[in-house]
């Protein structure tokens, strides 16, 4: 019989401890803190049974002083561990070790499917692609998630919580990476982008944007809509597209109740209530309500025209139609004549 490579391996009873195997760990392994059990007659570690070392800034308690010192760096901003390649700083040595793998290309955590990962937590998340486990359920809409962190982020769509605030303009975000990406719209950070396309040289701050860009060169669109057959380079783009067919609009405006298919559409709409235009062009100072409009505006300065008409080769800044107006008009006239 063919063995499932993603099934947990069996350990015969040999009288000795089995070797720890990653695939015997639960999906949320490493997500709960280890609490050692003490014998009934052991004295408590603290007179009140709690953590004896308290953070003076936030009151959080720790069992050991080194853990408190590491935590305090989140308040002071201290980053004593420096990368010898790019001099980026980190608060903990383990974070520096993980970062250095972006320079060396080392991916020590391997899945049986062949994919490698920089961090064990990334491998744990990836494993759910094979197992299909979605053990974390939203109590409001019952949507399932494979990671607790994804559930926490999702719940903010119900509560409206936006805990990550831009220090430059005060705009808040539900997801940390969105806040980080937004901060880069305020001006050049002076840092070399960590991801650079080997084909065209364009740099990216986020790995997801880099991978999406690479697929544009490859021309691969493996995800196809079962209703109309349209192809997409990423599964989440297909999911968003399918809402056109289903009519689903999961993002409501908290001001007027109007619903939208995409969060970006909701963000753009909310600017009509607030008048907010947080995305400012570093070249001319024009401001925009959403990052996509700023991105398109930048092309007026760079001269970039990435979309070509299939008929005449004329270039455009947007892909509203891959046929220019003159070619469309000519085709209509030709149809009417013939």
Annotated CATH architecture of the domain at 134-196: 2-Layer Sandwich
Class by helix and strand content? Answer: alpha+beta
Quaternary class: single chain
Strand order of the largest sheet: 1-2
Strand-residue proportion: 5-15%
- Rounded to the nearest angstrom, the distance between the terminal CA atoms is 64 Å
Spans of at least 5 consecutive residues whose pLDDT stays below 50 are 1-49, 332-338
CATH first level of the domain at 134-196: Alpha Beta
What series of H and E elements makes up the topology?
A: EEHEEHEEHEEHEEHEEHEEHEEHEEHEEH
Radius of gyration: 26 Å
The tally of beta strands, per DSSP, is 20
Give the name of the CATH superfamily of the domain at 134-196. Answer: Classic Zinc Finger
Mean pLDDT: 73
Helix fraction by DSSP (H/I, runs of at least 4): 25-40%
CATH topology of the domain at 134-196: Double Stranded RNA Binding Domain
Outline the biggest β-sheet. 2 strands, antiparallel
Shape: globular
Count of helical regions: 10
